[in-house]
UniProtKB/TrEMBL annotation:
Organism listed in the record: Populus alba x Populus x berolinensis
Keyword Transmembrane helix part of the UniProt annotation: yes
Localization: Membrane
Taxonomic placement: Eukaryota, Viridiplantae, Streptophyta, Embryophyta, Tracheophyta
Membrane disposition: Single-pass membrane protein
Transmembrane segments: 70-88
Molecular function GO terms recorded: O-acetyltransferase activity
Protein name: Trichome birefringence-like N-terminal domain-containing protein
Length: 477
């Protein structure tokens, strides 16, 4: 039909115009232009067909009403597929933070939905997004190159999911998504490790101001950074157990001293601050290996590795489970909290030749293959415990409108025994006897966590847009 040809030509013309506008970074204008123009052509086509079929005048009114609804639906769906061009740009070079190049997107699907957490590490000769020379925010504990680590191959690997490509981190896009918002990392020093990775990734676009002193006395453990150009606040709130904790040993705190946990009470250090944050990345891990006495309702219910005859021995997994359960319940109980919560899963350590306090180290310089290392033992138990509690929180969250997402880093990091500081987490001249096989070098494999995070934020942004548009469509039809 001739009208079909005209309609096709119109779509082709406005697709080309959209590509041009995209190259000018005016995505919204592109989407609106594309939608309006094609809808105009569609309506003209509808009018022509109605004129040709005017002999069916008895059915004109009902057909016209139905057609208008169908046209509105079609145009709205078209708009729905074009707007995500802005949110779902594809991969870029990791050597510098890329600009948002929407013109590179050639399909409507944008980022393929897939399990980004199952995959393998592949060589990436181009190296990391930043170095210790380009990012001055790396602390000595994670600055492995500055501290004398001789090999650099640990920085030249990239995570490849089994089902798709994981987009490179796009600092400009990340900052656009969080414009005017607040993000907090809640947990221990491994969570802070991820935040410091994010600081370096964003530094290629804009600089941040350390405003920690405005909010906390202990600015070593409670940090806040402000990005004035984007009105974005990035924070880390120190809470290694997520619940209230205190030293149980009257002689004071040490690396392996006994501590008491109130498993049914959230740590106010984060709970009193979190209500106004838009994104919360929550995590906990290796502190649960230490000797612990568990309390609930102000009563002792058991202990882990306390070796007291009058207290029931309970595994570390019980305390771990209850800590996350209490944390999620606390977030759900906060009246003003409307943020998205990401649970970052357990981060494996890689001590070999002994435990951390028995001369253990992590000397490897290459990743494991998926055949060499499988998720099992305590890493699997910690991971499954987290997932089970998250699923419960998600179920409750669907009723209240709160979103809980899984940032499943465990499988990928299990394969990276080469990514830890080992003895290169301090000055090369200091006398270091304890190896660090828990934290991660910067730059290093932990940068992948923020690639995961951005992927999930993009997906969430698209989902939120779709929900709003569908509601608007429902109101108009």
């Amino acid at each position: 039909m001739q009208s079909d040809g005209k309609m096709s030509a119109a779509v082709d013309y406005h697709s080309k115009r959209c590509a041009y506008l995209s190259s000018k970074k005016n995505v919204l204008k592109c989407a609106q232009s594309h939608r309006n123009a094609i809808c105009n052509h569609a309506y003209l086509f509808h009018f022509t067909m109605k004129f040709n079929d005017i002999e069916f005048s008895k059915e004109k009114n009902s057909q016209h009403g139905t057609s208008k609804k169908l046209l509105l639906l079609a145009c709205s769906l078209l708009f729905l597929t074009i707007i995500p061009l802005y949110l779902f740009s594809t991969s870029h070079s990791p050597l510098s933070s890329p600009k948002i190049d929407v013109g590179d997107l050639r399909n409507i699907g944008m980022v393929k939905e897939c399990d980004i957490f199952s995959g393998k590490w592949i060589p990436h000769p181009k190296g990391p997004y930043y170095t210790d020379a380009t990012c001055s925010l790396i602390i000595d504990q994670h600055n492995c190159v500055k501290s004398g680590r001789p090999d650099t191959e640990f920085m030249k690997w990239r995570w490849r999911p089994d089902e798709c490509e994981l987009p490179f981190f796009n600092a400009k896009l990340f900052l656009e998504l969080v414009k005017g918002k607040k993000m907090a990392f809640v947990g221990d020093s491994v969570g802070r490790n991820q935040m410091q990775s994010l600081l370096c990734l964003l530094a290629s676009v804009t600089q941040s101001e350390d405003i920690s002193h405005r909010y906390a006395v202990d600015t070593a453990y409670f940090k806040r950074w402000f990005y004035a150009d984007y009105r974005f606040t990035l924070a880390t709130l120190w809470s290694p157990f997520l619940v209230k904790s205190r030293d149980a040993n009257p002689s004071g705190h040490s690396l392996n001293s006994l501590m008491s946990l109130d498993l049914d009470q959230a740590d106010e250090a984060w709970a009193s601050e979190i209500e106004n944050f838009d994104y919360v990345i929550i995590s906990a891990g290796h502190w649960f290996f230490r000797p612990l006495i568990y309390y609930m309702n102000a009563q002792v219910v058991g202990c882990h590795n306390c070796y007291m005859d009058n207290i029931t021995a309970i595994t570390k997994y019980f305390g771990y489970r209850m800590a996350f359960r209490t944390a999620f319940k606390t977030l759900q109980s906060l009246e003003s909290y409307k943020g998205i919560t990401f649970l970052r899963t357990f981060s494996p350590s890689h001590f070999e030749n002994g435990a951390w306090n028995e001369g253990g180290n992590c000397m490897r310089t290459m990743p494991f293959t998926t055949e060499e290392k499988k998720l099992d033992g305590y890493e699997l138990e910690f991971y499954l415990t987290q997932v089970e509690e998250l699923r419960k929180a998600q179920k409750k969250g669907r009723k209240s409108g709160l979103k809980f997402e899984l940032l499943a880093t465990t499988e990928a990091m299990l394969l990276r025994p080469d990514g830890h500081p080992n003895h290169y987490g301090r000055s090369p001249h200091s006398n270091v006897t304890v190896a660090d096989c828990v934290h991660w070098c910067l730059p290093g494999p932990i940068d992948t966590w923020n690639e995961f995070l951005l992927y999930m934020m993009r997906r969430e942004a698209r989902g939120s847009f779709n929900e709003k548009l569908q509601k608007n469509i429902s109101r108009k039809i």
